[in-house]
Amino acid sequence: MVKKSTLVNHPPAVEVPADNRPVVAPIHQTVKFEFQTVDDTLRSLRGDRAGFFYLRSSNPTTRQLELTLAELQGRDDCLVCASGVGAIAQALLSLTRQGDHVLCFIETYGPTRHLIRRTLAKFGVEHTLLSIADLAGIERVLSSRPTRLVVFESPTNPINRIADIAAISRLARTHGALTVLDNTFAGVHQHGQYDIDIFLHSLTKFVSGHGDVMGGAAIANERLIRGLRPDFTVLGGVLDPHAAFLLQRGLKTYFVRFRAQCANAQRVAEFLSSHPAVERTHYPGLPGDPGHALAAAQMTDFGAVVSFDLRGGAEAGRRFAEALQLFAMTASLGSTESLVMPPQMLGSRDLNEEQQRLSGVADGTVRLSIGLEDADDLLEDLQQALAAAVQA
After folding, report:
1. pTM higher than 0.85, yes or no?
2. Helices (H), the chain
3. Residue 392 pLDDT more than 70?
4. Is 44 inside a domain boundary?
């Protein structure tokens, strides 16, 4: 009989019979796994047998999440990591090397632009920055120089521009470039029908859905994931098993939440588009939106982010955001509660004046992430905040 100090570090094993499956998969909150022999351990490390060894490489809980996400996005495999930015950074670092060229876009999440224009640049990776609507420019760049990656979003952050995914992916394929689509705004169930090489997601947003856990994912075919896996492993941005469990749990209500949020967003967008204090509303679900026809062809749901331009500019945006009662003034999106980002929080300091103009982000642009509150309550709150915004 072992001593008690030994017992607490080697507790009795509890085996679940094969025909007695738990309805909810357990959290494998462990860093390490072991085999009984050296040979089996080495076979597993070579990939010659199934099993797990070290959390940084894989874990049953994180693996279940990866397989679920891959199926939702219509691809073979997936890698998860600790944040959405982590997924972007690790994918870009893994896919590029000195001398490569990346085509990216003004209408892109700020940290993505930073990673391409500053971080990758330090390692000799060059880039071209265009507007997502400039298909002629995309073709011109791709035909004029070898390009490793075309990195883009749809809908774009923060004003919901819609990329022509079929055209961009066709041009990239023609000229030998890989396409990397940050699909966070659209969700893990959309755009899988297009010839995209790698989908990136911030799982912090709609997959989590509750604003209490971070995560990121790169989703692709098995061959590409096999190439990414060694770099993801050594870069070390590991998703904790408990976070993976919470994300997997969030997926159970993903479709219910996403579709309800989209319905709320549609009502909010329609309300804003007819309000005299609003100069322009950016939401692809509106028939008058420039991206509506393309979004209707590409998407089944138009998303839960609504942006708009206040006539009073930045100070009107400040008054509006501070007057809201039901919208938390903070970053992120996809949560059950509604969120607002005023103009002062949407600035893109890395863009020059012309690029700022092309971005479509105006002095009075406000971004809303619509939650699961009653739509009538949201509209009432927006109405009173708009009244406060226009008061001099």
Report:
1. yes
2. 4-7, 38-46, 60-73, 84-95, 110-114, 135-144, 165-174, 222-235, 241-252, 254-273, 292-298, 313-323, 353-359, 375-390
3. no
4. no
